[in-house]
Design goal:
This protein has 586 residues and is α/β, with parallel strands linked by helices. It contains 23 helices and twelve strands. GO terms for molecular function: transcription corepressor activity.
């Protein structure tokens, strides 16, 4: 008996040690390139020792009161560890490994109390189970495992309803909101689940006809896409957990599609019955027999494609304060390797100044003169002076100091306002800036005001355009501009009121037509002698090139779809020289 008690104490000591190391890793920032692998290895070694100890002493620990949910909690922590590492590195293998761990927990029913008629589970264990479902849902959602997402959502809803019925003294209101979030997210995203993935896929996004031109393309300067910062803030925007619909779409758009083995049809209920395994020190898994095994991670090895480049790192921020956003931007810029570019995606509503140069430029009679002034040094100096005046606190009635994006509730004043001048210090490095806002044109002033490198700017329309506006709730369907950049044909179908799966043959024909158009536009851009360097230097990168082509498509269809008198309201804007983009009209 004393020996069993000692083994139980040793087990709980290992649990506490692993949990402390896990907490340190969990609290590390999810952005930047500071070396953190040694923390990751330490916590993995701790959980390896813990898992091996409980496996070798399972029967004795069970006699001392070890419950299945305690084993499930260890496995859940490991899955969470993998997911956090994916968020830091954007390496798909970590995301897949998190999925495999969570699926094994679901298959083995580690948190299951045994059904009706069995002993009632403790409320603390129930909260652990709810957290497990929420985390597994997020991983499955990012991996586009739609069948699993549906299964988990239904079980999650049933579990929350059961919790409310059996734990009447406990408030489960927040969990009810989480259930509503995932079903709302699925409802918005489900209209396009039967079409191509958002990630970069060679089958769809690589155009053989333009390959020779891309191979021969040489700009005076070539920079590599290394890092991205993604954030959005809209009142009542569609989200699940801390991932909004807009950032979800953009996040997927900036990743390579994993190997096809991920998308092979598998039963939703897992396949881990025959291969129980154990963690090794480097995070891989060793096969073992017996009921205590956890998971066969060979699936992750099958998904590793050595021919694919690494994904750009992505810092996905959920409703950050402006000061935190600027701090993250500063960290990423500071750690950005030489000859590299950082993508910044900001989606938020804005505030238009009372009197500014954008209002002048929006009038039809001043368009030509505005373009002439953009290329003049005097106009650039005027913009820089105006931006500096605002940053220094000089408020002039004719200035555009009130133009901003709102990254939080407006009642908090300027603390939630992001101004164009806030971006200026970061233009000492190369930036690819995407502003999706009803006040995006306020950021035109960045062109010509850069402190070092010219910034590539893609600015959204001020208003979305739909054939039947009353049939589309823009607040609850995500941004139209972001949709065009991440899923252009689906966005077009939404704009004209068509369901992609209503006639899949026609949809596939349209996909082929669009692919041919993108291929031709690639050739035009690669053979141009007048393409501005800000675009030429990023054209070799497949992710940024795809965004540029989709921007051209977005502007082309909107220029045809929208009335000419309102083109400034409904067209995306490109303040940098864009004569070659205008060649690419449908």
């Amino acid at each position: 008996m004393a020996k069993k008690e000692n083994e139980s104490k040793t087990f709980h000591s290992l649990v506490e040690s692993a949990d402390r190391k896990f907490a340190r890793v969990r609290d590390l920032p999810l952005y930047g390139r500071a070396p953190q692998n040694h923390y990751f290895q330490k916590v993995f070694r701790a959980y390896t020792r813990l898992w091996k100890y409980q496996q070798d002493n399972r029967s004795k620990l069970v006699d001392c009161g070890l419950s299945r949910w305690e084993i499930g909690e260890i496995a859940s922590r490991i899955g969470q560890l993998y997911f956090n590492q994916y968020m830091r590195s954007s390496e798909a293998r970590f995301l897949v490994e998190a999925y495999v761990f969570y699926e094994a927990i679901l298959e083995r029913k580690y948190f299951d109390s045994g059904g009706s008629g069995k002993a009632k589970v403790a409320v603390g264990v129930r909260f652990k189970e709810l957290r497990f479902y929420a985390r597994f849902l997020l991983v499955a959602l990012i991996l586009n495992k739609i069948d699993m997402v549906r299964l988990l959502a239904e079980r999650f809803k049933t579990l929350v309803d059961d919790s409310k019925a059996n734990f009447r003294e406990t408030n489960f209101k927040e969990w009810k909101l989480v259930v509503q979030e995932i079903f709302h997210f699925m409802e918005v995203d489900s209209a396009f689940t039967n079409v191509r993935p958002l990630r970069y896929c060679a089958l769809f996004d690589s155009h053989p006809a333009s390959h020779p031109y891309l191979a021969r393309f040489h700009a005076r300067k070539i920079i590599k896409f290394r890092d991205a910062l993604l954030t959005s803030y809209h009142k009542n925007e569609v989200k699940f957990a801390e991932l909004t619909l807009d950032t979800y779409r953009m996040m997927q758009c900036l990743e390579w599609e994993p190997s096809e083995s991920l998308y092979q049809k598998r039963p939703v209920e897992s396949v881990y019955k025959k291969h129980p395994v154990e963690l090794s020190e480097n995070g891989t898994v060793i096969d073992h027999s017996g009921a205590s095994g956890l998971i066969d991670i060979n699936l992750a090895a099958d998904l590793t494609d050595p021919s694919l480049p690494s994904n750009p790192r992505k810092a996905v921020l959920y409703r950050p304060s402006v000061t935190y956003l600027l701090a993250v931007m500063a960290t990423i810029c500071e750690e950005l390797p030489p000859e590299s570019i950082m993508l910044i995606y900001l989606s938020a509503s804005g505030k238009v100044a009372r009197s500014n140069v954008f209002q002048i430029e929006s009038s039809g009679e001043s368009k030509k003169s505005s373009k002439d002034r953009i290329v003049s040094g005097a106009y650039s100096e005027q913009k820089i002076y105006a931006l500096e005046s605002h940053c220094n606190g000089k408020r002039e009635s004719s200035d555009y100091h009130d133009s901003c994006l709102w990254l939080g509730p407006r009642g908090n004043g300027g603390s939630n306002a992001l101004y164009p001048c806030d971006i200026i210090p970061f233009t000492r490095r190369s930036l690819f800036l995407i502003i999706d806002s009803d006040n995006s044109h306020a950021f035109k002033v960045l062109h010509g005001a850069e402190r070092g490198e010219p910034a590539a700017l893609l600015l959204s329309p001020l208003r979305p355009a739909f054939k039947n506006p009353s049939a589309v709730d823009t607040t609850h369907n995500g941004s139209q501009f972001t949709f065009f950049l991440t899923a252009p044909l689906q966005a077009f179908c939404q704009m004209v009121g068509l369901a992609p799966d209503s006639d899949m043959d026609s949809y596939n024909d349209a996909e082929e037509i669009l692919s041919i158009a993108f291929s031709e536009w690639e050739v035009i851009l690669c053979t141009s002698t007048g393409l501005d360097l800000v675009w030429a230097q990023v054209l070799s990168d497949p992710f940024l090139r795809r965004l540029i082509l989709r921007f051209i498509f977005c502007r082309s269809v909107l220029s045809i779809f929208c009335p000419p008198e309102d083109d400034e309201q409904y067209l995306p804007n490109l303040p940098t020289p864009s004569s070659q983009f205008r060649l690419c009209k449908i």
